[in-house]
Write a structure and sequence with these properties.
The complex is a heterodimer of chains A (113) and B (113).
Chain A (H helix, E strand, L loop, with lengths): L2 E4 L4 E4 L4 E3 L1 E4 L5 E7 L5 E7 L5 E4 L2 E4 L9 E3 L8 E8 L7 E3 L3 E6 L1
Parallel strand pairs in A: 2-12
Antiparallel strand pairs in A: 1-4, 3-9, 5-6, 5-10, 7-8, 8-9, 10-11, 10-12
Chain B lengths: L3 E4 L2 E4 L5 E7 L5 E8 L3 E10 L2 E4 L7 E6 L2 E6 L8 E8 L7 E3 L3 E5 L1
Parallel strand pairs in B: 2-11
Antiparallel strand pairs in B: 1-3, 3-8, 4-5, 4-9, 5-6, 7-8, 9-10, 9-11
Classes of the chains: A mainly beta (113), B mainly beta (113).
């Protein structure tokens, strides 16, 4: 079945540092890929997505590129802020599977001033 | 006002008690989902509903039941709560019409003693 593996946290960075959170996936078809973010005390919200190979999703300075050859969708940001502290989830959905999301385990990011 | 609301936000109960968690949405979406979140495991799908007459089991439905009272309401019940059902529970919705983004409620933290 489908699965998503992402790096374990917590990831602790200083403000303005570069961020990479690794995400790899296993899927039977051609999934859409997502990054969701969960701020403290809140539900998940979509950060960015990509629906086909080589697409780049971007939002709020974050970006991720759908790499079919390496089955990866790594999340990157060039300069993190304290307000980026949250838990980040990589997820996939199969295009013919009714929007079912399969999530990775989540990576907690802590950004220090 | 929030598009997806969940009640209660926090609940502490005892083993063997029946518990109902409620979800309401104002987004007009047909599809609704219940997930549970456990540390390090990401979110796992409990049940989902594509419309009022369509209810489907997810990955971890044992010990849970659901009711889709209307397009806007989707309730999750624990008939006889047990301690390993202690978790954070999220409701989500998505649009039937092509987009596969899911929109999450703020979550219900359930503790079973």
């Amino acid at each position: 079945g489908d699965s998503v593996t992402q790096m374990e946290g917590p990831v602790t960075l200083s403000e303005e540092a570069c961020l990479t959170i690794n995400c790899t996936y296993t899927a039977t078809g051609y999934p859409s890929l997502f990054w969701y973010v969960q701020y403290p005390g809140e539900g998940l919200q979509l950060l960015l997505k990509a629906t086909k190979a080589d697409d780049k999703g971007s939002n709020k300075g974050f970006e991720a590129t759908y790499r079919k050859e390496t089955t990866s969708f790594h999340l990157e940001k060039g300069s993190v802020q304290v307000s980026d502290s949250a838990v980040y989830f990589c997820a996939l959905s199969e295009n013919n599977a009714g929007n079912m999301l399969t999530f990775g385990g989540g990576t907690r990011l802590m950004v220090k001033p | 006002d929030a598009d997806v609301t969940q009640t209660p936000r926090n609940r502490i109960t005892k083993t063997g008690k029946r518990i109902m968690l409620e979800c309401s949405q104002t987004k007009g979406h047909d599809r609704m989902y219940w997930y549970r979140q456990d540390p390090g495991l990401g979110l796992r799908l409990i049940y989902y509903s594509f419309d009022v007459k369509d209810i489907n089991k997810g990955e971890i439905s044992d010990g849970y039941s659901v009711s889709r009272q209307a397009q806007a309401k989707f309730s999750l019940s624990l008939e006889s709560a047990i301690p390993n059902q202690t978790a954070l529970y999220f409701c989500a919705t998505s649009d039937l019409k092509g987009t596969d983004t899911q929109y999450f409620g703020p979550g219900t933290r359930l503790t079973v003693l």
